[in-house]
């Protein structure tokens, strides 16, 4: 297994400083829409599938899924207020071979709670609301994984960390080009 990039222990320590706050798993994903305008959404961090590959989930019928199929470049911003740290991860959506992807999706689907799984039983996101539409509260363990349950894996190639704890703030950047090189930056 590859060793961890040098910024991963710093991120782990910042997450630990956040404590048990559920918001510590929320991050913002920036994509580019087909008309060239930026889009930002909050998603839930789901784990690491490799030392520099971050996993998120989305509804494959959503605009973000379509945008990432068209242009797989993205930036993830992870603000950790108690740690007074902001991580910006430049990345590119990547996909393992289809057999491996299906296995990973099945694994993640089965590990979701019934209430978390329920979101994929809701109507298509972003279309006009039908007042009679069903929005299930839970989908039990026997519910088959829907085709629109999508795993978003992002291979990180650049990280900027802004530490807001002192004056002046500390800022640094790591770039992946065979190895992770660190550069100190003005805040």
Automatic annotation (TrEMBL):
Domain Pyridoxamine 5'-phosphate oxidase Alr4036 family FMN-binding as annotated: residue spans: 5-90
Q: Which domain of life is it from?
A: Bacteria
Spell out the SUPFAM superfamilies in the cross-references: FMN-binding split barrel
User: InterPro entries recorded for this chain?
Assistant: Pyridox_Oxase_Alr4036_FMN-bd, Split_barrel_FMN-bd
Please list the GO terms describing molecular function: FMN binding
**What name has this protein been given in UniProt?**
Pyridoxamine 5'-phosphate oxidase
Native species: Cyanobium usitatum str. Tous
Q: Lineage of the native species?
A: Bacteria, Bacillati, Cyanobacteriota, Cyanophyceae, Synechococcales
């Amino acid at each position: 297994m590859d060793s961890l990039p040098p910024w991963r222990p710093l991120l782990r320590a910042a997450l630990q400083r956040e404590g048990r706050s559920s918001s510590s798993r929320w991050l913002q994903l920036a994509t580019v829409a087909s008309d060239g305008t930026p889009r930002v959404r909050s998603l839930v961090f789901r784990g690491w599938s490799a030392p520099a590959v971050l996993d998120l989930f989305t509804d494959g019928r959503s605009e973000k899924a379509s945008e990432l199929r068209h242009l797989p470049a993205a930036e993830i911003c992870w603000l950790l207020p108690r740690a007074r740290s902001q991580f910006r991860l430049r990345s590119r959506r990547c996909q393992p071979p289809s057999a491996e992807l299906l296995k990973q999706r099945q694994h993640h689907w089965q590990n979701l709670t019934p209430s978390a799984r329920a979101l994929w039983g809701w109507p298509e996101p972003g279309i006009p609301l039908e007042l009679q539409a069903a929005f299930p509260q839970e989908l039990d363990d026997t519910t088959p994984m829907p085709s629109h349950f999508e795993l978003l894996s992002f291979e990180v190639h650049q990280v900027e960390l802004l530490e807001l704890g002192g004056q002046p703030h500390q800022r640094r950047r790591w770039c992946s080009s065979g190895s992770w090189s660190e550069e100190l930056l003005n805040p």
